[in-house]
TrEMBL record:
Protein name: DUF4350 domain-containing protein
UniProt-listed Pfam families: DUF4350
Top-level taxon: Bacteria
Residues spanning the membrane: 251-276
Keyword Transmembrane in record: yes
Species classification: Bacteria, Bacillati, Cyanobacteriota, Cyanophyceae, Leptolyngbyales
Keyword field: Membrane, Transmembrane, Transmembrane helix
Organism of origin: Stenomitos frigidus ULC18
Length: 395
């Protein structure tokens, strides 16, 4: 089956449209933004490597958070899963331990750009003595400059956001703030605490030159002196047992998890392309008749273009005057042989009752002898039109 150029173009447009829809309608790419596997500017791979270079072990939580917050559920081994294309260099052996059980003692859990509100289960988990560090919480936009540098004992910290935490109470303690509000603050909850940050990029890869950012986050997670875990499940990384559990089931269960909006949009685009490509609805396509070429009209148009470019208005006026004189003679019943202008003027006056000057101005205009402009030419054509109207009334 061979495709025409038009069909190839249509298929190309359809594929491009589907790609664009996939980019904007599909779920966002969370594998890089805020993930310790991420090497993109919004990732935290550089900060994770720094912590490992200091001999600190950071576990990656790759199961649903509900199984961590609910102590009643049985704990399963936390098996680390590598990001696609990531190497094993620089990752601690503890990260791959298949026998490492989920934590039962208090820990420090770092969540980056989760965006989900705190649940009752998470608050109850913090009350038991755990520490939850949330980077990128929803805070109001203030008049603070978007890009600012804040002095701190660990070094200058660069902040690129105008959002600030403004609610303060007795249980809240600012850890990093300016005159516009808190950027990082701590709130005691039972035996534990929650540390909030208004920016998700506090120690992202983009701030590798701002060592104060890396040191500040390192101090936040190490000060409680608890085992450090980082949430990777929210970024799409899952343990093998979780993947097996989520992918098992019927076809209907799989389709229920598929983004319905994206599928509907893709189906609509495909249908529109098929209708447009076939260009038919109730039968085969009907070929359009080939328009016939009027050689005389084409010749006249070509000649007029040449005369216009050459500015040969005298030739055009002379030729049209001769043709119009013969038409006037025919209308007055004087035949087709050229007659003296005086004879024609007398016949015109007798038969139409109009002054001879009207006909003489149209058939023998003064513009014969010079090159005329467009306004004079239009005026002369109007006189020719008037002559034809008088002859029509005579008939």
């Amino acid at each position: 089956m061979s495709l025409s150029k038009r069909q190839i173009w249509l298929l190309s447009i359809a594929l491009a449209t589907l790609v664009i829809l996939s980019l904007f309608a599909a779920p966002g790419n969370r594998l890089q933004s805020g993930s310790t596997y991420g090497r993109a500017p919004h990732g935290y791979g550089a900060w994770y490597a720094l912590m490992e270079s200091r001999g600190l072990t950071i576990h990656r939580w790759q199961k649903p958070l509900q199984s961590l917050f609910q102590p009643s559920e049985p704990k399963t081994p936390a098996i680390e899963t590598l990001a696609p294309g990531a190497s094993t260099a620089g990752i601690s052996a503890a990260a791959f331990s298949a026998t490492a059980a989920a934590p039962t003692d208090p820990i420090t859990l770092l969540q980056i750009s989760n965006g989900e509100p705190l649940s009752v289960a998470s608050m109850s988990w913090v009350e038991r003595g755990n520490v939850l560090v949330l980077l990128g919480v929803n805070t109001p936009v203030t008049k603070a400059p978007f890009d600012s540098t804040i002095a701190n004992p660990v070094g200058e910290i660069r902040i690129q956001t105008s959002r600030r935490g403004v609610d303060r109470d007795a249980k809240t303690k600012p850890l990093l703030n300016d005159s516009f509000g808190s950027i990082v603050w701590r709130q005691a909850v039972g035996k534990g605490q929650i540390i909030f940050a208004s920016t998700p990029n506090l120690a992202a890869n983009a701030y590798q030159n701002a060592q104060g950012n890396y040191e500040f986050l390192a101090r936040l997670v190490t000060t409680p002196n608890l085992p450090i875990w980082v949430d990777e499940y929210s970024h799409g990384y899952k343990d093998s047992d979780v993947i097996q559990q989520e992918t098992s089931g019927s076809l209907l269960g799989y389709l229920a998890k598929t983004p319905v909006l994206l599928v509907v949009l893709q189906t609509i685009v495909i249908l529109l392309v098929l209708i447009w490509g076939q260009n038919r609805r109730l039968g085969p396509a009907i070929a359009l008749p080939t328009p016939s070429t009027d050689n005389s009209k084409a010749y006249i148009q070509a000649l007029s273009a040449v005369l216009r470019k050459a500015e040969s208005s005298q030739f055009v006026v002379t030729t049209v005057c001769k043709a119009e004189q013969l038409e006037v003679q025919k209308a007055l019943g004087l035949g087709t042989e050229p007659l003296p202008l005086a004879t024609l003027l007398d016949a015109w006056t007798q038969q139409t009752g109009q002054p001879a000057a009207i006909l003489e101005a149209a058939l023998h205009p003064a513009i014969h002898s010079r090159r005329i402009g467009e306004s004079d030419l239009l005026k002369w054509l109007q006189e020719i039109k008037t002559i034809r109207q008088q002859l029509g009334r005579k008939g």
